[in-house]
Amino acid sequence: MKNLEVLEELWTVINERAEHPSPDSYVSSILTHRKGIDKPLEKVGEEATEFILAVKNGENDRTIEEGADLLFHFLVALKAAEIDIEDVLGELAARRK
Ligand SMILES: N=c1c2ncn([C@@H]3O[C@H](COP(=O)(O)OP(=O)(O)OP(=O)(O)O)[C@@H](O)[C@H]3O)c2ncn1[C@@H]1O[C@H](COP(=O)(O)O)[C@@H](O)[C@H]1O
């Protein structure tokens, strides 16, 4: 899977934004939002719903876009919850049969 490394790059950027918030950064705006953890969780809920609707409507291009949004906001929410992606991947690895 040649694009898998983008997840690692994205996780690195999200961590950098958490450590050094910037006013121009969308990730920072989510991580420092006045609603706290509710903001990233709200985004995961929104994007999950949009993803479901795109699949149900048979809209392949939109499914790809919404899938990307969902993965992105999942990673941001994981960071906001102070969980390392490595632990989630470790859990998946442990489930391999
Ligand atoms: N993958 C993304 C990504 N996907 C979507 N978005 C941003 O999400 C915003 C639009 O989202 P929505 O329409 O769902 O949001 P909204 O309803 O307008 O407002 P909110 O609910 O988010 O407040 C736009 O500003 C997009 O730029 C993203 N912003 C950043 N990334 C990645 O995160 C990296 C760091 O980004 P910055 O933190 O902005 O530097 C980038 O290099 C990208 O790799």
UniProtKB/TrEMBL annotation:
Class of this enzyme: hydrolase
Record key words, sorted: Amino-acid biosynthesis, ATP-binding, Cytoplasm, Histidine biosynthesis, Hydrolase, Nucleotide-binding
Compartment annotation: Cytoplasm
Pathway: Amino-acid biosynthesis; L-histidine biosynthesis; L-histidine from 5-phospho-alpha-D-ribose 1-diphosphate: step 2/9
EC number: 3.6.1.31
GO function terms (MF aspect): ATP binding; phosphoribosyl-ATP diphosphatase activity
InterPro entries: HisE (IPR008179), PRib-ATP_PPHydrolase-like (IPR021130)
Major subcellular site: cytoplasm
BP GO annotations: L-histidine biosynthetic process
Catalytic activity: 1-(5-phospho-beta-D-ribosyl)-ATP + H2O = 1-(5-phospho-beta-D-ribosyl)-5'-AMP + diphosphate + H(+)
Classification via Pfam families: PRA-PH
CDD domains linked to this entry: NTP-PPase_HisIE_like (cd11534)
Top-rank taxon: Archaea
Gene3D superfamilies, per the entry: MazG-like
Keyword Amino-acid biosynthesis: yes
Family to which this protein belongs: Belongs to the PRA-PH family.
Classification via NCBIfam families: histidine_hisI
Name of this protein: Phosphoribosyl-ATP pyrophosphatase
Organism: Methanofollis aquaemaris
